Amino acid sequence: MEKQYFKYSTGYVNIDDKNLYLTNSGNWQEARDLKEKSPKTKRQNSSRIAGNNLFLFIVFGGLTLGAFYMLNKASDFNILDFSTVGSTVKRLGLLAAIGFVIYKYFAPELGKRYKIPLSKIESIEYWEKGVRINFRNETNEPDRENIDGVEMKGFDILKQKSLLKS
Description:
By secondary structure, this protein is an alpha+beta fold. The protein contains four helices and seven strands; from the N terminus they run E-E-E-H-H-H-E-E-E-E-H. The protein has helices spanning 28-32, 39-74, 82-106, 152-160, and strands spanning 4-8, 11-15, 19-23, 114-117, 121-127, 130-136, 142-148. The strands form two sheets. A four-stranded antiparallel beta sheet has the order 1-2-3-4. Helix 2 runs antiparallel to helix 3.
């Protein structure tokens, strides 16, 4: 059983001989525990992603308030005293860097988590931002998943497994 994986914008796609898994970490233990896409797993993913978005909104709101506070404090400085200006710019830059690092750290948590049996995949096609998977979900209804930001290795793996047509 050959296992392969590749990265996309908000996580990893793991593929073995039976399933295609959308995971956050690329870890096979995480993939093994996933359920097939269904209305229930869709709700679970949506609520987990909404919770993570709320957390990020609160963090970025706090960073923004901190930036406004620093700018307000900076209004007390003498315009000719460049040491004060430089200090404020450094602090704002540090806040922006912290925000960027936090976002990059949590980006995989914004991805979906479920599996799609290879036998239920009807087609995988190029899409403007990556690939589009057309398949039947757990309730055997037609479904679709757009995967953005697929790395080049991913296209090669999908072609190799004859899932993506050239």
